Amino acid sequence: MSAADHRADLIVIGGGIHGCSAALHAALRGMSVIVLEKDTVGRHASGVNAGGVRRLGRHYAEVPLSQRSMEIWYGIADFLDDDCGFQVAPQIKVAETEEELAQLAARRDELNDMGFTHEVLLDRAEVRAHLPAVADHVVGGLACLDDGFAQPYQTTFAFQRKAESLGVRFHEHTRANAVRKEGGDWLVEADAQRFSAPRLLNAAGAWAGDLAAALNEPAPVEAIAPMMIVTSRLPHFCDAVVGATGRPLSFKQMPNGTVVLGGGRRGRADRATNLSEMTFPELMLTAQTAIDIFPAMRDATIVRSWSGVEGRMPDDIPVIGPSARHDNLYHAFGFSAHGFQLGPGVGEIMGNLIATGATNAPLQPFSIARFSDAPQP
Amino acid sequence: MKSCDIAVIGAGPAGLAAATRAADLGYDTVLLDEQPSPGGQIYRAVETADHARTEVMGADYARGRAIVDAFRASGAAYMDGALVWNISTDRVIDFSRGGASSQLSAKRIIVATGAVERPWPLPGWTLPGVTTAGALQILMKASGIVQEDAVLAGSGPLLWLVAAQLVDAGAPPRAVVETTPRAHYRAALAQLPAALRAPGYLAKGWRMMRKVKRAGVRHFAGAENIAIEGADAASAIRFTAKGASERIEASSIALHQGVVPNQQITRLLRCDHAWDAAQQCFRPVTDEDGQSSVQEVYVAGDGAGIGGALSAALHGEITALAIAARDGRGDPARLKSLRAERARDAAVRPFLETLYAPAPHVTAPADDTIVCRCEEVTAGAIREAVNLGAPGPNQVKSFLRAGMGPCQGRVCGPVVSAIIAERRGETPGATGYYRIRPPLKPIPLSELAQFTIPDAPEDR
Amino acid sequence: MVRRIEPDGETFEFTFEGRTIVARPGDSIAAALTAAGIVNLRDSVVSGRPRGVFCMMGSCFDCLVEIDGVPNRQACMTAAASGLEVRRQRGGVEVQAS
Fold first, then answer.
1. What residues in chain B have per-residue pLDDT under 70?
2. pTM of the full predicted structure?
3. What three-state secondary structure class fits A247?
């Protein structure tokens, strides 16, 4: 039996930032929405990531989405009644060799040709103006001077609370076990409960592939566990979020003085048990890179680590848009460890798309059909 | 990577006894401990303490010498100064020793990391000069350093033991301020007959109290509303007792509210934990012999539930024998008699647990009291986060940074869970506890930058 | 005041904030500082308020000091040694959000 409060215009499966944001935007367009989350909101990649609000270095297909998202970020405090810990700060990718700097310059030129000017090249002196503590060997960098960072859990929680204030119903610890079409409705069974709605959004992150497969629309989502380490509080020395060009690094000193380090290295992830596990020897290179680029890090101590379970696609860009197989089914998943900044903007696109059935956003590169078109093994 | 049959973590009575017996049974055994010498906190520096110090600490302390000697004579490898900072689910131990990190792969792990003092957040408890009662005792054991004119405040056997040791050292404390609620004495009476079956404990306790009172130490019972005054260091303790407001000037104030299992490693290993209503603490779920819910992970001693030093030594040996029994080896008769001995020793526990259960105010600090010492998060801020909808300690942590500082929630964890549970009207067991993530203690980034394992692939 | 159970014994010296501290073999830095009557070891990184020894067993991380230029060392878990230069750890590094 599906009670009246288990019916809505839209069911969102997955209470990460994308599920919460899409639910909020759908509610803003007058839809009634139910969000089903198997754990708690923001439990996985949305609550545990580096918090980078980054346009810098994105896949070209993501750039328009990222630009739109950034506009929402700038007004996030008014939008969500919570500042989300968002602060504007430069994102800088440093070049450690002239060759790397040339690569960065080429990217800048290509973006300019596409009409985007948000990424700018920094020379040796300019990079030091932003990063006084950077090592001598750094020759320059590529930057988005008005990117930023935010608090991931606070942000996802703020999206949830704003959505709730507009009537969105969140069911945590509610795992969608089975989904099927019955009459005109999507019927979702979650343990003893049943939910129904004419429209369904799959925003289930690392678990989204299972859902898509169950609906005969397989997508190769790999569960990964990006690793982050956090130092004890250090005297303030860096205002920007810093990456490297030739080796993986994500480096950010928080306003409280702690430094969050990550970048590319992965631990073990297991979707079945929700388990993600650090593998520290993998972080040796991250630690070396951080010390190489900021020699002051030599005295830092590591206090904490995180790894959350995240969904990654083989081509490292997400699946966003309508199903290629079913009407009234939509997907937004597989953000491949760089979906946090996209949350506000992609949620808006999905909210519009689901409410009106159409969008002007350039979603074609993100279609789930790109996997069904591929030759089957 | 080095490997072994059994890795024991912690060199208190449980770990020493477990390692000694495991090595005797022929297991390739490695004991890792963070301290420079074996003994744990209870038998700290027992090998090097001279006659005068041993006299002050008493016969129960001196007994540790035999346990340490037996361990030294066993075939177990001993890694002193080894800080275990991570253990993977396949039982690879990351540890730091002498400024470098390395790995040890163990077929089985015995966690013997003992107990920590129950946190007691009260106004002024972060001031220099305020310590745990255990800290005063460690100063005596490890360095023969005696604090004069201390005020001991709180509840539990250790409070009186430290007071008695200070008397024996010629430095009677200025006062013992006891928070044990009067009602607990009445409730404990019912447990008294059973407690008398455990040999020696009650007489020993009574002698300690008599010694302290005869030394002229002021004693306040049923104290409440405790606060510590001071600008840059503690200068006085205030409280109410028997309806009167009291104030005692003191620059050393030692707090104690009993001990609880140290959960850091068992939580890291994702062992199931349960709320123990009798001991008012979380403990890992284990069988009688210390087998946890995680395959090949055992917990021995106070880390599995508070039983004291004698029980811990028995439990350590029991755990080693139980492992052997599983392998079809060992000494079933001895295992049986050790279990019986430990059960007898435990007869005193219901009495102690009832009498010394923390008073309600201990786990319900006032709104403006700091609970997380590292990040200075107050009880009021935690309650506010719960009002906003944070359902448990991990969300409070993400939200407020409680438990995110260098102690990683070791100190505040039990009270944070208690505050959330109280506000949500549920048991701490339902509320849960911080997820414990590596590193278990902070390690230098420069050490991680050198952390290689010879057979590790370059990249994955 | 603080005193020793054993009145005599071998000693050595290190410094705290430039002041000479007399220690005995087996002392941690925290123990030797306590014996010297020093309780104020660092500033809280949040409020800047003073902190000192609390647990003496490596749990609470309140006794963090700078030893020979390296910050964040636990005074209670570090053996005192002749010639060490120990300093109070100054905190207050919280930066106001812009």
1. 453-460
2. 0.90
3. coil
